[in-house]
Each structure stands twice: as structure tokens, then as C-alpha cells.
């Protein structure tokens, strides 16, 4: 999404080349040019705001030893698999059930921990190898900040530990001497308050979760998240941020919002609908002042909550981001079916349907392993759209290699090979669109819109996969 006006119309010569010149070298060249262009112009980007969920992630690497379970847990998993389960962690056995399912499917997932005792138990059983910035808002703020883009972040708990994890160029809103100010987030830390951690269980392709009667082998690297985050699970908005942000929108281009996936259906005296209403009234106020809104989806189990997001949040945004699984589940909330979520044509059809139904959404950016697909309406020329995707793929590869992005380490992302699966998916889409040029140009104009789909760089042994989707969509 990072866009700077001087790039407008300055795309690559990619499109006009003959088909036989396609190939790895040409793609690499396109990647390099796109990254250089964006980096050269990034200082000219306006400010960003990222909200609402910022937290600390405790990273745990699981292997067959840490996945050893007793007979009682084994029976619990089997019973849950046959008679159904809620996707919530009420007891420690639910954590192992979730890990079993996530490893078996190789899919990212996140379940809320429902009792503090279970959170404490997890903390006793597992030792994190690292504490890292977590939450869509926090992760995106750090990527932007590291690239030199000034970003105001919403943080429900401004603990010293949380604030120490931010990069340069990231700011918070604080009321000082009766006035709302944007201050470097490291200076905004409040003493005497503490953060809890979200537990990120990373597993590598081939990780085995095996007992006498159960077996799961991870088909790909991925992670499961167990979340204990009372403030973000209620989408509690920090008072200074809520009261002050509308007066601090000078030079702000985008407000990037996420965190709805953490909501619960009920609270003491309130429901998810009340919590969504409060955030939407802030979004509307901000949008009235000319700031564009991007919503980043995440895996949201409750169909009721998904329906409310579609009904109340989709109409007040300009841009939307998701992965293939999230698309399927939100299409369900729109009473639509996706035929095969792991397919570029389905992704394209889904995006088109969303944009048709919600005319206010001018940009949709979807990602799957190996390729990304984006459509914009009255926003970006096709080549610029493609360059922005090439740039985000490079950032994701960089984060997969190093765990964080800096201006210097982006070159390692560039050196990563391009996914074969991605190339096949682009070919499939070109056939569907009946445009053979698209297979090599990776962009086209279609019915007055810009469309781009690119094969992406996929890192063989990522240090971590958490936060890659957030890095891609920004
Ligand atoms: P979510 O966080 O929304 O699930 O998105 C994860 C995305 O990270 C995937 O769609 C894929 O594009 C990207 N990704 C994964 Br998973 N593993 C990767 C890897 N090893 N290298 C680069 N990108 C990866
Ligand atoms: C969710 C989780 C958070 C994690 C993030 C990664 O927001 O709650 O812990 O860092 O996803 O995308």
C-alpha cells in the first residue's frame, strides 16, 4: 500500500517485452526495479496510523518432544474430533487439540484463552525463545517505521516492555498539559503497567504430533496462536488515542485498522456489536476528514461477528486485505461460496464480488502462499500496483529470513527465489482472463480497474511465519 506520488506512471517496461524473454531473470529484474523505486521515494509518503491490536508475542518452537501428551489429553482430542468443539481454550487440553488441528492442516489459526489459569499454565509449560512485537497494528507500525514512514500506533497497553519493542518513527498519542500530542512511542511508556503475552507456537514442515492413536504431520511451516489479551479482545480504545486522534490527522494518508478477530460474542453487559459500533464511529469521523481506511482481516471464528464486520465495517472503508482462508470465511458471512480457496481464479472472483457489492472499497489486496492478487478502482495505475506488490513480497521474504525488516536487510529478501506454485497460479489466472500478456506482465487494466497478480518470493526455512500477512498487506 505504501505509495508515493512521484512513482505514478513510472512503471517498468515489463509489459511490452516479447513472451520468450519471460523467465526468472526478467522477474528478478522487475523485483529489483520496483524495490529501488519504492525505497527511493518512500520518504515522500504521508503519515500512517495503525490500530487497534498491538501486543507482545512469545515465540515458542514446537517439536515432537514438546508435543508429548498424556492419555487423558489424547482421549480429549479424540472425543473433541468426533463430537465437536468450540474454538476456545478453556483448559490446557484445548491447547493441544488446537495444535493438533493446526499442524494437521498446516494452517495458521488463533484461539482465545478463556481463563487466566490456563494462560498461567501455558507460561509454566513452555519457554519462549523470543519476545517480539505482535498484533497487526504493532507489526505494521514497525515495518513502516523501519522503512522511514512516520506512523502513529494504537496501543492498548503502553507498558515499558511493549514500548521497548517499537522501531524508530513510531509515535503514540498522549495528553500532556491538557493537550493531545504525538510523541515517540518509546517516550509514551507508562510506568507500573504490565503486558501479557500471546503464545505463538511455530511449527516447521514435517513436525509430527503423534500418539498411539493420533497422527498429524505438518504439510508446511506455520503457527498456532493462543491469545490472552483482555483489552484487545474487547477492542478497548486507549482514551488519549480516542479523544485526541481526530485533531492529529495532518499529513495522515491512511488509517489501517485490524483486531476485530479478537472480539468475543458477549461481555459483561455488552456484546461484540457494541464494541464494533464504538470503533466504527471513530472510523467514520476519521474518514470524514479525508483519511483513507484500510481494514486487514484475520481469522475470525464467529460467523455472527463476521456478519457484523461485513455489515458495519465494510461500508466505511476504502481498502481491504486478507488471505485465502479469511476470504472464504468472509464470503460465507456475505452468504457466498468460494469453490476452491487455494486457487487464483477463486481469489479473483471473490475480490471482484466484494468490490461489486461494496462500491466504497477501491482497493483489495489478497495473499496466498506463492502469489498475491490486488485490484484497485480509481486509485493506482496498473504498473504501480504491480510494483507495490513486488515490494511487499520482498518485505515478507525479508521478514521470513530475519524476523524483522530494516532498510539494509531488504536485499536478502530480493535474493530469495520466486515460487513455482505462484507462477502456476498466475498462469491459471491469465488463462481465465484470456490475456496471455498477463502471464508475463503480471498486470492489466480490466473494466476500468487495475489488476495485478504476482508470483512471490518464498523463503525455504523461515525463522518465523507470524506477522508475514501483516507485512504483505501494508
Ligand atoms: P497470514 O499471516 O495472513 O496468514 O499470511 C501469511 C502469508 O505469509 C502467506 O499468505 C504467504 O504469502 C506468506 N508466507 C508464508 Br505463510 N510462509 C512464507 C515464506 N516462507 N516465505 C515468504 N512468504 C511466506
Ligand atoms: C494476531 C495475534 C498476534 C499476532 C498477529 C500476527 O493479531 O493476536 O499475537 O502477532 O496476529 O499477524
Draw up the topology in text:
Elements: H1 24-41, E1 47-52, E2 55-61, H2 71-83, E3 88-89, H3 92-105, E4 109-113, H4 116-125, E5 130-134, H5 136-147, E6 151-153, H6 160-163, E7 170-176, E8 179-184, E9 197-203, E10 208-210, E11 215-217, E12 222-227, H7 239-244, E13 252-258, E14 266-267, E15 270-271, H8 272-288, E16 292-296, H9 303-313, E17 319-323, H10 324-333, H11 344-357, E18 363-368, E19 371-377, H12 382-402, H13 410-414, H14 420-433, H15 438-441, E20 443-446, E21 449-455, H16 468-473
Parallel strand pairs: 1-6, 1-13, 2-9, 3-4, 4-12, 6-7, 13-16, 16-17, 17-18
Antiparallel strand pairs: 2-5, 7-8, 9-12, 10-11, 14-15, 18-19, 19-21, 20-21
Structure characterization notes:
The chain has helices at residues 24-41, 71-83, 92-105, 116-125, 136-147, 160-163, 239-244, 272-288, 303-313, 324-333, 344-357, 382-402, 410-414, 420-433, 438-441, 468-473, and strands at 47-52, 55-61, 88-89, 109-113, 130-134, 151-153, 170-176, 179-184, 197-203, 208-210, 215-217, 222-227, 252-258, 266-267, 270-271, 292-296, 319-323, 363-368, 371-377, 443-446, 449-455. With 474 residues, it is α/β, with parallel strands linked by helices. It has 16 helices and 21 strands. β14 (266-267) and β15 form a beta hairpin. An 11-stranded mixed sheet has the order 8-7-6-1-13-16-17-18-19-21-20, sandwiched between helices. The protein has a 6-stranded mixed sheet with strand order 3-4-12-9-2-5. Strands 10-11 form a two-stranded antiparallel sheet. Residues 3-21 have low confidence and may be disordered. α2 crosses α3 (92-105). Bound molecules: 8-bromo-adenosine-5'-monophosphate (8BR) and alpha-D-glucopyranose (GLC). The site of 8-bromo-adenosine-5'-monophosphate has 15 residues, from β18, α12 and α16.
Amino acid at each position: 500500500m505504501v505509495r508515493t506520488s512521484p512513482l505514478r506512471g513510472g512503471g517498468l517496461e515489463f509489459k511490452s517485452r516479447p513472451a520468450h524473454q519471460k523467465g526468472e531473470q526478467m522477474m528478478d529484474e522487475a523485483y529489483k526495479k520496483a524495490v529501488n523505486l519504492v525505497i527511493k521515494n518512500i520518504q515522500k509518503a504521508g503519515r500512517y496510523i495503525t490500530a487497534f491490536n498491538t501486543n507482545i508475542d512469545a515465540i515458542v518452537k514446537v517439536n515432537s518432544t514438546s508435543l508429548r501428551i498424556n492419555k487423558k489429553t489424547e482421549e480429549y482430542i479424540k472425543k473433541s474430533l468426533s463430537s465437536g468443539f468450540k474454538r476456545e481454550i478453556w483448559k490446557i487440553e484445548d491447547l493441544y487439540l488446537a495444535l493438533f488441528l493446526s499442524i494437521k492442516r498446516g494452517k495458521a489459526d488463533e484461539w482465545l484463552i478463556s481463563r487466566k489459569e490456563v494462560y498461567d499454565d501455558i507460561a509454566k509449560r513452555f519457554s519462549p525463545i523470543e519476545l517480539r512485537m505482535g498484533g497487526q497494528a504493532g507489526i505494521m507500525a514497525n515495518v513502516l517505521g523501519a522503512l522511514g514512514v512516520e506512523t502513529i500506533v494504537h496501543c492498548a497497553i503502553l507498558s515499558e516492555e511493549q514500548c521497548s519493542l517499537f522501531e524508530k518513527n513510531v509515535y503514540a498519542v498522549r495528553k500532556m498539559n491538557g493537550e493531545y500530542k504525538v510523541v515517540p512511542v518509546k517516550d509514551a511508556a507508562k510506568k507500573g503497567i504490565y503486558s501479557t503475552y500471546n503464545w505463538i507456537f511455530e511449527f516447521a514442515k514435517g513436525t509430527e504430533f503423534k500418539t498411539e492413536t493420533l497422527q498429524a504431520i505438518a504439510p508446511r511451516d506455520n503457527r498456532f496462536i493462543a491469545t490472552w489479551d483482555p483489552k484487545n479482545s474487547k477492542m478497548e480504545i486507549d482514551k488519549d488515542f480516542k479523544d485526541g486522534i481526530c485533531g492529529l490527522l495532518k499529513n495522515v494518508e491512511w488509517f489501517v485498522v485490524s483486531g476485530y478477530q479478537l472480539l468475543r460474542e458477549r461481555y459483561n453487559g455488552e456484546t461484540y456489536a457494541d464494541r464494533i459500533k464504538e470503533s466504527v464511529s471513530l472510523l467514520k469521523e476519521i474518514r470524514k476528514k479525508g483519511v483513507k481506511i484500510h481494514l486487514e482481516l484475520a481469522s475470525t471464528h464467529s460467523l455472527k461477528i463476521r456478519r457484523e464486520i461485513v455489515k458495519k465495517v465494510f461500508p466505511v472503508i476504502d481498502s481491504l486485505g486478507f488471505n485465502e482462508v479469511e476470504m472464504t470465511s468472509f464470503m460465507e458471512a456475505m452468504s457466498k461460496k468460494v469453490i476452491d480457496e487455494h486457487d487464483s481464479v477463486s481469489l479473483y472472483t471473490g475480490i471482484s464480488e466484494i468490490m461489486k457489492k461494496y462500491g466504497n472499497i477501491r482497493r483489495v489486496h489478497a495473499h496466498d502462499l506463492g502469489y498475491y492478487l490486488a485490484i484497485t478502482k480509481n486509485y493506482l495505475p496498473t504498473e504501480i500496483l504491480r510494483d507495490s506488490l513486488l515490494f511487499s513480497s520482498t518485505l515478507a521474504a525479508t521478514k521470513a529470513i530475519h524476523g524483522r525488516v530494516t532498510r539494509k536487510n531488504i536485499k536478502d529478501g530480493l535474493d530469495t527465489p520466486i515460487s513455482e506454485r505462484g507462477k502456476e497460479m498466475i498462469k491459471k489466472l491469465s488463462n481465465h482472463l484470456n490475456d496471455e500478456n498477463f502471464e508475463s506482465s503480471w498486470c492489466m487494466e480490466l473494466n476500468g480497474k487495475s489488476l495485478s497478480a504476482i508470483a512471490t518470493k518464498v523463503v525455504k526455512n523461515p525463522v518465523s511465519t507470524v506477522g508475514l500477512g501483516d507485512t504483505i498487506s501494508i
